[in-house]
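Cross-posting from the chemistry board since nobody answered there.

I work mostly on the small-molecule side, so proteins are not my area. We synthesized flavin-adenine dinucleotide and want a rough idea of how it might sit in this target. Sequence and SMILES are below. Is it possible to get a predicted 3D structure of the two together?
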Amino acid sequence: MQTLKDFDLTDYNTFGINAKAKFLVEINKEADFLELLETTEYKNNQKLFLGGGSNMLLVKDFDGLIVLNKLKGIEIIKEDEENVWVKAMGGEIWNDLVLFSVEKGFWGLENLSLVPGTVGASPVQNIGAYGSEAKDTIFEVEAIDIKNAGKKVFTNKECEFGYRDSIFKNKLKGKYFIIAVIFKLSKKQNKNVNYRALQEYLDENKLEIKSSGDVARIIAEIRESKLPNPKILGNAGSFFKNVYVDIDKLLEIELLYPDVPCFEEENRTSPLTPLLNKERGNQTIKIPTAWLIEKCGWKGKRVGNVGVHIKQSLVLVNYGGATGAEVLDLANKIIDSVDQKFGIKLTLEVNLI
Ligand SMILES: Cc1cc2nc3c(=O)[nH]c(=O)nc-3n(C[C@H](O)[C@H](O)[C@H](O)COP(=O)(O)OP(=O)(O)OC[C@H]3O[C@@H](n4cnc5c(N)ncnc54)[C@H](O)[C@@H]3O)c2cc1C
């Protein structure tokens, strides 16, 4: 195991921000991590676990040790008539796992086709897209406690999953290194195509779903047509979380903007500001943050090296040579204008490093 110094992270974050890490080590097998725990670099520095760098903004150089997850392997560990349990190591590319599962005809991961990043990061923010979330199929998460190197297996419930959230992004942030995730998938057809944009696409193009592979392929097509490819235009997907409001707030906005799009969702963990958080039971209503940003005039706007993507206002982009501070500055301007116009404080989906 080699410790690299003053490591250039430009190619290790999808924003393409030019920043450095004081140290970086690659973990290729579990024993590497145990060996790492004994090193002075590990003992004397702050640590950051890194997968594909597709959900982070490097605001400055990282003055510590980056632990890069390269653990590989996907295997079926158990099956019965209806289900199959698939164990994927944390350094596997998420979409490779999706392809593995749909090639075998399993159902459960197909709606998360083409989400960038690694398997090990998928529980951290409970990745979600097209009406599906990682929590729907995660059975267990295997992780190493960074204090004592002990292995802990988290059940789905223990992961405390929420909307783009989990215990690994909150209480246990940075405290466990996720080495593998076990997914419980279905062998029987179990399609989930009720998500509006997906259903509309299927209807418009008169497409019929016969397999989980069909779903994965179609979602990949939709995503490629809407989202910027980080290899061409640096970005980290949605920069902000969607907003959940109570009915009073929705009515207040509706008075001024009768066209406000909203979706009722039950039992959501609300990422609201205290201002909005006078909950009425569990009822919360989703307002797409992209709409709020558009109404503030930001869609497609460029400020120097950074901007708001022309097709998707939730996505901030690096036109080339941007610093993390420039991206953050734009994000703060957007947060301020949404707050001023709607009295809603946006929260970040991306991790600031
Ligand atoms: C174009 C684009 C589209 C996207 N679309 C979606 C989408 O549809 N839905 C969605 O949910 N997300 C989306 N994202 C965000 C991103 O793909 C996911 O959050 C993904 O899970 C991040 O994986 P990663 O390996 O790149 O994580 P990283 O960015 O490397 O890390 C993210 C966080 O997880 C922690 N972490 C990483 N690995 C480990 C580990 N092994 N153990 C413990 N902690 C760890 C890191 O320290 C960091 O805090 C998109 C991003 C891009 C660029």
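Reply from a structural biologist on the board:
Welcome over. Reading the output above for you: The pocket of flavin-adenine dinucleotide is lined by residues 14, 48-56, 69, 90, 115-118, 120-122, 124-125, 127-129, 168, 177-178, 227, 230, 235-237, 351 (CB under 6 Å). The chain has a mean pLDDT of 93. Happy to explain the token format if needed.
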